[in-house]
Structure formats: structure tokens, C-alpha cells
Amino acid sequence: MSLDKRMLDLGTEPAAGPRPNFFDDPAMDRVWDVLVALTTELAVTRTRLDSLERVLAEHDCVPTDAVEQWQADEKTSLTQAQAQQEMLARVFRGLAQDVPGKS
Amino acid sequence: MSATAEHSRTAAAPPGGGALPLPMTSMEQHAALPKLSHDDRVRFQVAAGVNGFLSQTLLPLLQRAAAERVEPRIEAELKRPAKDRHEYRAFLEQDLTWRLWSRMRRANMESVQQAARLAVLPQLPDLVQTSRELIERAGNLQLASGLKAPGYLKRLHSHLMPGGYITELGDDDVAAGAAYELGVYAVLGGKSGPASDRAGRATVAWLAEHRPGWKPKRILDLGCGIGANTTAIARAFPEAEIVAVDAGAPMLRQGAARAAALGVDNIRFVQGNAERPPLGDDEQFDLITSLMVLHETSRPGTRKIFQACARHLAPGGLTFHLEQPPYRDKPLLEQCLRDWDGRYNNEAFWSAMHDSDLAAQLRASGFDDAEVYETEANAAQIGATKKTQEDYGRGGAWYVVVGEKPRLQEVRQ
Ligand SMILES: C[S@@+](CC[C@H](N)C(=O)[O-])C[C@H]1O[C@@H](n2cnc3c(N)ncnc32)[C@H](O)[C@@H]1O
């Protein structure tokens, strides 16, 4: 399922309260925000791949190079792009929430 | 089965040796629980794993850094040890390990809250519909639409939950409560049990030990949230009538729907300010609890909550307030670790409360003729927590302030 822009904006609203920085250069704080989110998303993806391999193996029906042989049509490709936007909103949340004059 | 699948099957203990975070599917299932996609389930489990990494791997390094880098620097510059945690923290905050631990802890907390919100919002119309039906059938909810919420709940969104407890996104909204239910399970990696109720179960165990066989008839739970812990108390005293008060309507709706879905029928969820609970002046309760609530209020707020307890506690009744332990004589590093939630996790009264004497405040709030004392409740006693490196401020070893009113005949003597 992909979330639209309105849902992503509402969903990535920050909590009311101060936004502390821990490093001398706040850029470092933002990089760490991204790294934590990115690591989470990568772990999610790896788990999904692992789940997928198990499902495929359990059903014993799909050749291993099936994904390599497959190409997305335009509509599918746009759906995937939407999902990529969702991941970017999650990973870059720390940057997007850092509104000048608000922290 | 592929080699990768076979390999990842062998679940090794995580680095540091803590317990593996439980899957979200081990949550107690009920009709009002938000549905989770495969990826969301994993997202929460990974976030719990990150917290495990922080407490089991990075925290011991931070303790070493404090001993080997921070404290020698304090000695070198001040020619004496730090006199309090404020002085200690000024040095600690310069240390790289502290900065990394803090940044990751904050970022992960934000991630969990965001993930919960993003999981709940797309299914909100369904959740609202389900909870409406459950609540209508159970008739266990009483809202006060014009309630003026206390300022501290508006100013700061506790533990970084966007919107806090009180924001309503639409009619009959449950978003905050539904997100809270997911978040609280994920942050503790399931350590609070399938129903996230270890504090409630520890409360029941404490009561069983200190008043064996006691069956309170009327129970008031202040700041009940989604009633996860209230439900544990309700299940232990099925004949009791329980009134559960909270300021947040979305929390109460989720709580009422959840209780109804779980078949717990002796709790009435009532919207109101715990400082002045919406009760008749002469309404009395045998047991009045607040579990992990006071640290989100204020000094005057806590005093008013205690005064309300004095007003509504029946003779022979017991009031029980559960929190993390006060800082007092704890080592300065531990004080700084425990104080993290007050400074960086939007807990309004956390720092000042842990510096203060809650028992003295309770005594001074209308309990001068009562027996007031400090005690402990422990999740380990109910088998809910394995002994691992303590995650300060999140642990299952609680500090409790108790007030016991004399029975009527004792008063007359
Ligand atoms: C951390 S939650 C704890 C919920 C519950 N006691 C539990 O153990 O799961 C704190 C709850 O206290 C509520 N709260 C804080 N101050 C309050 C007040 N003055 N009146 C009513 N509710 C309050 C919040 O809305 C929130 O739901």
C-alpha cells in the first residue's frame, strides 16, 4: 500500500516540544536521523526479501531468476515510484521536520 | 528452503545478549487493534531491536566512556568530582558516545511514533467505525466534549507522539489511542507482555502481597490512557466497579473499544481532568491508582491529583501511584541517564518529579492522618522481565507512593 502526499504530510508531523541537537554541528544530528531510519528501512526490506523467498520456496513454483527476467510496465513503475516516495519521506523525516526558526 | 532462509532461521542472541524483541503478532489480538502490514510489523520489531542495541551494547560503552573519559576530565578541570548531575552532564554532553547514544535513542523514538502514525492513518475510518460499534454495544464510555485539557498535555507531546493524547483528527477519532497501543508495545519490544500491562499486573501482585485477600469494590484509575494496565486490574477484580479517567478522548475511545473487544465489562471510561475528576463530591473508592501519569503533569497538577485522591478515597482505602524511582542518592551518571526522558523525550514533569519527595507531597495533600510510605513494585516478580542491562527510565522496577486511610473505627479512637 502506498500513502499519498496528504497522508504523508499528516503522518510525518512532528510532536510539539523542543527538538534537541546533540552534536556541535546540527548537520551531524540530521545525518544520524537519516541513518537510523535508513537502517530500519533496510532491515525491513531484507526481512521482506527473506519472507518472499520463503513464500516462493513453500509454493515451489517460481524460478529463481523470475525477478531478473521481469520488467515493470509504466503503470507499475509509477506505483513503485510512489512507494519509493514513501520510503524517502520516512528516511528524510529528520530533515523535513527541521523547520528554520522553530527548533 | 534456500540457504539464506536456513541461515537466518538460527536466531542468535543479539549483540550484548539481551532478549530478542517479540514480533508484533504476539500482541494480544482484539477487534479494535490496528491491522499491520508485513513491513509495518517488521518496522516495529526492528525499532525494538535498535532500542535493544542501544541499551545492551551502546549503554555499557557509555558507562565505560564515563568512567574512563568523562570523570577523569571532570577531576582534571574541577580538581574534585562533580557536585550534582547538572555539573556532571555539562561534561558528559561533550562525550562522543553520549552524543551517539542520545541521537540514536531520540531518532529511534521519533521513528517508532512516526511508524505508528503512518500505520494508523490510512485505516482510520475503519478503526473509527469498529470502535463506534464496540462502544455503542458496551456503553462503557462517557466523554466531556468541552473539556479544557491541562496546559502540559498541549504544550508537550509526551514521548514524541505527534498530536499528543488530546488532538482529534475528526469525529470519534481514535488515532492517538491506536498509535499509542502499537508504540508502547514496540518501544518495549513486547517486554510489557502481550497486553502491555506489566505495570497493572505488578500492581495486582503488590496488592495481593500487602493486602492478601483484599477485594476493593470500587476502583478509580487516574490517567488510564488506553486502559492497558486498568484492564489487568479489572481482570484481577472482576466483581469490582472501575472508573478510568483520562483527558484524551482518542485514548479513551481506543480504551473503551479495546476493553469491550476483550470482553472486560467492569470498566467505565470517563473523560476528565485527573486534577478534578468528574465525580460527585461524596463519591468514594476503595482503591485509587495512577500508573506512570504524574511525570507527565506538573507540581501543582500532582498536588491537585493527590488532593482529589484524599477527597475520594474511602476510609480504609488505599491510593497507589507508580513511577520510576527518584534520583536521590543514585550515582550522577545514572541520574543523567534516567533524566534523559525529561530532557529529550518531552516528559513535562519528569526531571522535577524525580528530584522531589512524592511521599511528602502526598502527605501534605490531605493524607496527614493516613499512613503514607514509599515502596516498590517489580515486573520481575510476575515473571515479566528477564534480568538484562537496565534501560534506565524504561525498566520494570518501579517506585510507588502509597497512602492508606485509617478505617472508620480507627478514626474515632
Ligand atoms: C503514559 S500514559 C499512561 C497510561 C496508563 N496509566 C498506563 O499505565 O498505560 C499517561 C496518561 O495520563 C493522561 N493524563 C496526564 N495528565 C492528565 C490529567 N491531568 N488528567 C487526565 N489525564 C491525564 C494522559 O492523557 C495519558 O493518557
Explain how this protein is built:
The complex is a heterodimer of chains A (103) and B (413). Chain A has 103 residues and is mostly helical. Chain A has a domain at 27-64 and 72-103. Chain A contains five helices and no strands. Chain A has helices spanning 5-11, 26-59, 66-69, 74-91, 93-96. The longest helix of chain A is centred in the middle third of the chain and has 34 residues, at 26-59. Chain A is elongated, with a radius of gyration of 18 Å. By secondary structure, chain B is α/β, with parallel strands linked by helices. Chain B has a domain at 194-412: 3-Layer(aba) Sandwich (Rossmann fold). Helix content of chain B is 46%, strand content 13%. Chain B is built from 16 helices and eight strands. Chain B has helices spanning 3-9, 38-78, 85-92, 96-120, 124-138, 151-155, 175-187, 198-210, 228-236, 249-261, 299-312, 332-338, 340-344, 350-355, 358-363, 408-412, and strands at 141-142, 218-222, 241-246, 267-271, 285-291, 313-323, 371-378, 397-404. Chain B has an eight-stranded mixed sheet with strand order 1-4-3-2-5-6-8-7, with helices on both faces. The longest helix of chain B has 41 residues, at 38-78. The radius of gyration of chain B is 22 Å and the shape is globular. The model of chain B is unreliable at 1-17 (pLDDT under 50). Chain A binds chain B through residues 1, 3, 7-8, 10-18, 20, 22-23, 28-29, 32-33, 35-37, 39-41, 43-44, 47-48, 50-51, 53-54, 57, 90, 93-94, and chain B through 1-2, 4-5, 8, 37-39, 42-43, 46-47, 49-50, 93, 98-100, 102-104, 106-108, 110-111, 113-115, 117-118, 121-122, 154-157, 160-164, 169, 343-344, 346. S-adenosylmethionine binds at residues 150, 153, 165, 199, 223-225, 228-229, 245-248, 251, 273-275, 291-293, 296-297, 301 of chain B.
